[in-house]
Amino acid sequence: MEPDAAEIAPEVEVRRSRRRTRTVTAFRERGRVVVAIPARFSRAEEAAWVERMVARLERTERRRRPSDDELVTRAARLSSTYLGGAVRPTSVAWVGNQGRRWGSCSPSNGSIRISDRLRGMPTWVLDYVLLHELAHLVDAGHGPAFWALLEGYPHTERARGFLSGVSFAQQDGSAGGDGFADADGFGDDDDGFGDDGDADDVLAGPRA
Ligand SMILES: [Zn+2]
């Protein structure tokens, strides 16, 4: 099996909150998992809840994130729907070392890599990145002929805007880039898509 990001222990930041009295929540922020807990928790409670919430977050993300096999199936469907089925990648896989890029491909061997920073993003964004890389197996550039390949996909402009927004929101001093530096026009740093605050709070009462 390929190493998978979910199998690598994430960097965790614990935030103690006086306003938080009975709930615990976990979300991703700038590549870290943030676990917010009530200020009154003991160190033992903190440790137990961090373990529980990180496991819970990863379960949720696995449900939302297709496996490599599903990526292959998805890419094949996108190819047949929007590129006439002409493009058949030899492999499609999640990878964790894409730097600023959302995706990349090797036209020489037909492989496609998708940044695991896309996990948890809407499927129409993931599909856009897949289709973008599929199109690069036909045309390596970003000229009119390349964009013409993506014309059939109805969410191209929306997905590009979405990813630009993510890049913009995630820029901080450490990122250093302008989000347009790399060849793909795909942005900087990180997914930043955690579960959203209160909606995912877990009541700490019974265990506290
Ligand atoms: Zn590109």
UniProtKB/TrEMBL annotation:
InterPro entries in the cross-refs: UTP_pyrophosphatase-like, YgjP-like_metallopeptidase
Gene3D superfamilies cross-referenced by the UniProt entry: Metalloproteases ('zincins'), catalytic domain
Residue ranges occupied by any YgjP-like metallopeptidase domain in the UniProt entry: 95-159
Positions of region (Disordered): 173-208
Pfam families the UniProt entry points to: YgjP-like
Residue spans of biased composition, Acidic residues class: 185-201
Protein name (Swiss-Prot/TrEMBL): YgjP-like metallopeptidase domain-containing protein
Source organism (scientific name): Beutenbergia cavernae (strain ATCC BAA-8 / DSM 12333 / CCUG 43141 / JCM 11478 / NBRC 16432 / NCIMB 13614 / HKI 0122)
Phylogenetic lineage: Bacteria, Bacillati, Actinomycetota, Actinomycetes, Micrococcales
